[in-house]
Specification:
Largest sheet: 5 strands, antiparallel
Oligomer: single chain
Helix content: under 10%
Structural class: mainly beta
Shape: globular
Number of domains: 1
Strand content: 25-35%
Distance between the termini: 23 Å
Number of helices: 1
Radius of gyration: 13 Å
């Protein structure tokens, strides 16, 4: 399933990033986030999105670090 504007997502860091950069990870990413727009990243084929997190923070994230939010896990 493809991600698109309006989808709820969660941030999933790569295992190596979590291990090496544990204290620098983006802990502010309050779940879920909503995709606001797709970022036009010239020179790359990897998609990137602008995300507004539940606490109001906004960040740009590579699609490889996102997955669709499963609302059934929070109820």
């Amino acid at each position: 399933m493809s991600m698109r504007v309006g989808d709820l997502v969660q941030y999933i860091p790569s295992p190596s990033a979590t291990f090496k950069w544990e204290r620098y990870t983006d802990a502010f990413k309050s779940l879920p986030g909503i995709i606001l727009r797709e970022v036009d990243a010239k020179g790359t084929t990897t998609r990137r999105f602008e995300i507004r997190w539940h606490d109001g923070q906004i960040s740009e994230e590579w699609i490889s670090y996102l997955e669709l939010f499963d609302n059934s896990l929070t109820t």
